[in-house]
TrEMBL record:
GO CC annotations, alphabetized: nucleolar ribonuclease P complex
Residue numbers spanned by region Disordered: 130-179
This protein's name: LAFE_0D08526g1_1
Species of origin: Lachancea fermentati
InterPro entries, per database record: Rpr2/Snm1/Rpp21
Biased composition annotated in UniProt, kind: Basic residues: 145-160
GO biological process, one term: tRNA processing
A Pfam family annotated for this UniProt entry: Rpr2
């Protein structure tokens, strides 16, 4: 008993969606070794069912690693850097470099080109420096006491931020507002 055309298309889309979603779940459950197998299964299913995949998925090492087949997730299983190199003509070429953390496969993608000439300044690496704060004489003398006082202050703040303390403060402010109200009866009593 076969499927009609509509049922077949519905099964095909659900099957392909399942495999594609499974590829994206594997890195989050720390199973990168299965990603290559599932990626190959996904590609074979798309070929078998004659589905043309978008360029973002098919392109070599853009969405998936070209070596192990894992889905690239920046900061999780992929390191991404912007690399500047000098061209033979003296122009600066900037490429985006994807490095798979799982298998160390590197893919360079062209980013842009600057018309400025290469110089020794551009080859030097930038190192950020911040001014070092000068310690106060009172801080250095009472360094242990300052830390203890800070800890005591934090403990007091934690105690003051409990729900019962907040509600009691709110009641006190409401009572003060009620006492400060100017009513005719209050004026006649005095």
């Amino acid at each position: 008993m076969g499927l009609n055309k509509q049922q077949r298309e519905k099964f095909l889309t659900s099957h392909m969606n399942y495999k594609y979603n499974l590829l994206h779940i594997l890195p989050s459950i720390s199973q990168p070794q299965l990603s290559g197998v599932y990626f190959k299964s996904f590609c074979n299913a798309s070929k078998r069912n004659q589905v043309t995949l978008p360029e973002q998925i098919v392109a070599d090492s853009v969405k998936f690693c070209g070596s192990c087949g894992i889905v690239f997730i920046s900061g999780v299983n992929m390191r991404m850097r912007l690399v500047e190199e000098c061209d033979d003509n003296g122009k600066i070429l900037r490429t985006l470099q994807y490095t798979c953390i799982n298998c160390s496969h590197v893919k360079n993608l062209f980013f842009d080109q600057k018309d400025t000439s290469c110089s020794e300044k551009s080859k030097e690496h930038f190192v950020a420096t911040w001014p070092v704060p000068k310690p106060n004489s009172s801080d250095t003398e009472n360094n242990g006491k300052v830390k203890k006082n800070a800890a005591k202050e934090r403990a007091k703040k934690r105690k003051m931020n409990t729900l019962t303390n907040i509600l009691s403060k709110k009641r006190e402010t409401e009572q003060k507002k009620n006492k400060l109200s100017l009513s005719l009866e209050d004026l006649l009593k005095n």
